[in-house]
């Protein structure tokens, strides 16, 4: 159902906003867009935004320095609005905000969202949560700063308007935001395309050590904690790697793993359409969209990859040889033989 912003704000004095852990472009864009709109148009309401640390490139958006990264002692709010988050667990350290608030609202476009708030505005067909936030705001009251945030969010979750989720409504929303006088090209260049030297190094490593499996229908790559330490990379430096892997000709699914703890991996999945990666992620406790999803899995990289490949195989409905399912041993030996950089 669609919510009416003015209705849910009635009588509210303190509002908290938050999004999912490891905030990406749409999470930051939708959260900052709504935060800026509320603080500009409703100065009588106290509004706080809680997110984990965001990538440095997103600081192009006004007032990102006001984001709170930790909970204060007093965390009870009249209203909590959750953005771009498919379930309570994805709120990470800010989940108490949901549980302690008098009223809760969720604005999201993940097909796996289980409608966990009191009031839910969930449209899986939408390009992004930023687009949904745009539909809730009065266009004439959207400032240039707010428009920049929402445009960034839409651009990121549509792959700069390339993905199939980009609808005529998406383009119309983007056009209206551009009419606010924002520099769309600069936002895209600075926050989407521009990479640091470290980001390019870790991307190159991931591409170099990738392997095609399942009759070359799936591409897989893993980055270990040792590699992260060697390159002095942080998780946000891995943004965009799985999307680059997905562009491989002939590939239907891209799998990218990075080690977050001993025998624990953050898995990113991307599909070109034949495989519903959201259902695969949900099977293992994660979620997302039909063509873009994620999950955290425990075990060795070998186990994680093989478990994912079994589910992908079921969807592809194609028999494969056992040696292809259990590809990690071959892949790992090839990695060792092909190493170009010494990693201690």
What does this structure look like?
- This protein is of the alpha/beta class.
- Helices cover 39% and strands 18% of the residues.
- The chain is built from 14 helices and 11 strands.
- It has helices at residues 5-9, 25-41, 95-100, 129-136, 144-157, 168-178, 184-193, 197-208, 225-231, 241-246, 277-283, 301-316, 322-325, 328-337, and strands spanning 14-19, 46-50, 79-83, 103-108, 119-122, 211-213, 218-223, 253-261, 264-271, 287-288, 292-298.
- The strands form 2 sheets. Strands 6-7-8-9-11-10 form a 6-stranded mixed sheet, with helices on both faces. Strands 2-1-3-4-5 form a 5-stranded parallel sheet.
- Strand 10 and strand 11 (292-298) form a beta hairpin.
- Helix 2 packs parallel to helix 4 and helix 5 (144-157) crosses helix 7 (184-193).
- The longest helix has 17 residues, at 25-41.
- The radius of gyration is 21 Å and the shape is globular.
- The N and C termini lie far apart (53 Å).
Short description:
By secondary structure, the chain is α/β, with parallel strands linked by helices.
């Amino acid at each position: 159902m669609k919510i009416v912003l003015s209705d849910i704000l009635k009588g509210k004095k303190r509002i908290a906003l938050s999004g999912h852990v490891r905030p990406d472009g749409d999470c930051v864009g939708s959260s900052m867009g709504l935060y800026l709109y509320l603080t500009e148009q409703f100065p009588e309401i106290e509004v706080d935004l809680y997110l984990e640390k965001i990538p440095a490139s997103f600081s192009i958006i006004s007032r990102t320095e006001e984001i709170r990264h930790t909970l204060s002692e007093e965390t009870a709010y009249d209203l909590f609005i959750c953005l771009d988050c498919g379930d309570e667990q994805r709120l990470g350290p800010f989940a108490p905000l949901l549980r302690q608030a008098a009223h809760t609202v969720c604005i999201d476009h993940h097909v796996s969202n289980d409608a966990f708030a009191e009031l839910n505005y969930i449209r899986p067909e939408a390009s992004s949560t930023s687009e949904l936030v745009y539909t809730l705001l009065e266009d004439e009251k959207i400032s240039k700063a707010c428009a920049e945030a929402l445009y960034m969010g839409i651009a990121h979750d549509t792959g700069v308007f390339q993905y199939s989720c980009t609808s005529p409504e998406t383009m119309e929303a983007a056009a209206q935001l551009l009419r606010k006088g924002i520099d769309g090209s600069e936002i895209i260049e600075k926050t989407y395309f521009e990479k640091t030297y470290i980001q390019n190094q870790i991307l190159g490593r991931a591409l170099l050590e990738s392997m095609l499996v399942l009759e070359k229908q799936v591409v897989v790559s893993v980055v270990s904690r040792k590699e992260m330490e060697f390159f002095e990379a942080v998780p946000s430096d891995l943004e965009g790697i799985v999307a680059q892997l997905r562009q491989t000709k002939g590939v239907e699914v891209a799998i990218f793993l990075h080690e977050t703890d001993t025998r624990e991996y953050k898995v990113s999945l991307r599909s070109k359409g034949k495989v519903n990666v959201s259902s695969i992620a949900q099977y293992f406790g994660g979620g997302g969209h039909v063509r873009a999803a994620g999950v955290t899995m425990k075990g060795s990289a070998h186990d994680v990859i093989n478990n994912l490949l079994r589910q992908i195989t079921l969807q592809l409905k194609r028999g494969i040889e056992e040696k292809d399912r259990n590809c990690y041993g071959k892949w790992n030996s090839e990695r060792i033989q092909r190493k170009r950089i010494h990693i201690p």
